Amino acid sequence: MSDTAAPPPVPATATSAATPKAANVPDQDAIIAASAWVTPLRTEISRVLVGQSMLVDRLLVALLTNGHVLLEGVPGLAKTLAVRTLAGTLQAKFQRIQFTPDLLPADVIGTMVYHPKDGTFTPRLGPIFANLVLADEINRAPAKVQSALLESMQERQVTIGETTHKLPDPFMVLATQNPIDQEGTYTLPEAQLDRFLLKVRVTYPTPQEERQVLDAMATSAPKLDVSQVTDMTAITKSRAVVNQLFMDEKIRDYIVAIINATRQPETLAPHLKLLIRCGASPRGTINLALASKALAFLNGRNYVIPQDIKDLAPDILRHRILLSYEAEAEGVTTEDVVKTLLDKLPVP
Question: Is the pTM of this model over 0.70?
Answer without folding.
Answer: yes
